[in-house]
């Protein structure tokens, strides 16, 4: 079903792509079919996974399949070794050139089937214990990270050499005093969160696409029909973003997505072609007020508020408490932001469904945002 025909279904429809059967309109064509490896390897890998491995590791298709299979086997051997060796286990790693697994042990004479063995001084338990103590210490900004490095059998502390100061040296000295396994590596940059959460941007769930509603502490809100609790989601750039922490549909159409540390909540809504709208609050607009919405299919569209507390009988079930507008929307806009008020700075809700499209016009409904915040105990990110 194409986007136009889907949008013209009689009555109200959901505005997600690839999520609900009635509107399965993938963002960039149908999801790629799994590729079946040849030869003795019976595993199946998605085409996009193989392509990424080929690109980033410099392998051809057959080499990529073999590498993925051997990596899985090595991971299983490493887990078995960790369980059986106990305190004698010093870690494990796969050599990037040969693909072979090495298991570190603290006692000579031990062997591990399917892996090379290296005798080391520190067990993984000891290294993890040292790192746990460092985790309790407050670090200056110049200390960028610390980790257990199984290959070097040490705890590696990274420090930005451009920012290194007396506070960093003091922290490092204390760290080394905790255990002799601490090593220091200098780096030239400090890590920062990589991506921003912004209302109206695309979000992806498997083969489906929706839109981000509003940023909240630790994530964002969107439409419930876009995903169920536990559904993995990636951002506009297809980078892993987190998963649905809660979802209600039908009945209501609301969801909370909890994001990982690579994403920073911002009080922004994408105006598609204009400066970001800054969200200041969530005061409800009056009937007849101008209102605009942002979505990943049709961008920035405006209309007026026509009614509150409308019950809509979708094919998938009845949803209550929706707000009716005459702003247009299309599949993929689901979950996107609705804003009103001075500078459009007042968050109103997230797109649920509607009828018509942005060529012929139509009616669109949104789930008010304040009930979502209340249900999940969330705080709107404000500018």
Note down, in words, how this protein is organized:
This protein has helices at 3-7, 47-57, 61-85, 124-135, 166-178, 369-376, and strands spanning 13-14, 34-35, 45-46, 89-94, 101-105, 116-119, 143-149, 154-160, 182-187, 195-199, 202-205, 208-211, 214-216, 219-222, 232-234, 240-248, 254-259, 263-269, 277-278, 290-295, 299-314, 317-325, 337-340, 346-357, 361-368. The protein is of the alpha+beta class. Helix 2 packs across helix 3. The chain is elongated, with a radius of gyration of 26 Å. The chain starts with a helix and ends in a 7-residue tail after the last helix. Residues 1-29 form the signal peptide. Belongs to the peptidase S1 family.
Keywords:
single chain; 383 residues; alpha+beta; six-stranded antiparallel β-barrel; five-stranded antiparallel sheet; 6 helices; 25 strands; 19% helix; elongated; serine protease; Pept_S1_alpha_lytic
SSE-based structural type: alpha+beta
Strand content: 35-45%
How many helical elements? Answer: 6
Low-confidence stretches: 1-12, 19-42
Report the major sheet. Answer: 6 strands, antiparallel, barrel
Let me know the average pLDDT.
86
What is the alpha-carbon Rg in Å?
A: 26 Å
Distance between the terminal alpha carbons, to the nearest Å?
Answer: 40 Å
Helix content: 10-25%
Strand elements, count: 25
Based on CA inertia axes, which overall geometry fits?
elongated
Major sheet: arrangement of strands: 20-21-22-25-24-23
Family: Belongs to the peptidase S1 family.
Signal peptide: 1-29
Domain Peptidase S1A alpha-lytic prodomain: 122-177
Keywords: Disulfide bond, Hydrolase, Protease, Serine protease, Signal, Zymogen
């Amino acid at each position: 079903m194409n986007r136009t025909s889907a949008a013209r279904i009689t009555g109200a429809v959901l505005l997600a792509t690839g999520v609900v059967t009635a509107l399965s309109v993938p963002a960039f064509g149908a999801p790629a079919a799994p590729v079946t490896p040849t030869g003795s390897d019976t595993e199946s890998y998605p085409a996009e996974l193989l392509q990424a491995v080929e690109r980033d590791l410099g392998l051809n298709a057959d080499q990529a399949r073999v590498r993925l299979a051997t990596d899985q086997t090595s991971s299983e051997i490493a887990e078995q070794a960790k369980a059986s060796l106990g305190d004698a286990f010093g870690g494990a790693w796969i050599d990037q050139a040969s693909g072979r697994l090495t298991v570190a042990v603290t006692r000579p004479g031990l062997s591990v089937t399917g892996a090379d063995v290296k005798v080391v001084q520190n067990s993984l338990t000891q290294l993890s214990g040292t790192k746990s103590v460092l985790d309790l210490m407050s670090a200056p900004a110049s200390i960028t990270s610390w980790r257990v490095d199984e290959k070097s059998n040490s705890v590696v502390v990274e420090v930005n050499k451009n920012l290194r100061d007396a506070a960093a040296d003091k922290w490092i000295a204390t760290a080394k005093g905790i255990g002799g396994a601490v090593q220091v590596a200098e780096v030239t940059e400090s890590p920062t969160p990589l991506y921003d959460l912004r209302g109206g941007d695309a979000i992806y769930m498997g083969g489906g696409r929706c839109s981000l509603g509003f940023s909240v502490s630790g994530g964002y809100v969107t439409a419930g029909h876009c995903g169920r609790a536990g559904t993995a989601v990636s951002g506009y750039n297809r980078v892993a973003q987190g998963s649905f922490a809660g979802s209600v549909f039908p009945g209501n159409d609301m969801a909370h997505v909890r994001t990982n540390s690579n994403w920073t909540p911002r009080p922004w809504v994408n105006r598609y072609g204009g400066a970001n709208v800054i969200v200041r609050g969530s005061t409800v607009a009056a009937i007849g007020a101008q209102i605009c919405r942002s979505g990943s299919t049709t961008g920035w569209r405006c209309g007026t508020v026509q009614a509150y507390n409308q019950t809509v009988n979708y094919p998938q079930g009845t949803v209550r408490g929706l707000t009716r507008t005459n702003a247009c929307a299309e599949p993929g806009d689901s979950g996107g932001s609705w804003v009103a008020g001075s500078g459009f700075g007042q968050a109103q809700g997230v797109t649920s469904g509607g009828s018509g499209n942005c060529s012929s016009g139509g009616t669109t409904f949104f789930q008010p945002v304040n009930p979502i915040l209340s249900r999940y105990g969330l705080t709107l990110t404000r500018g």
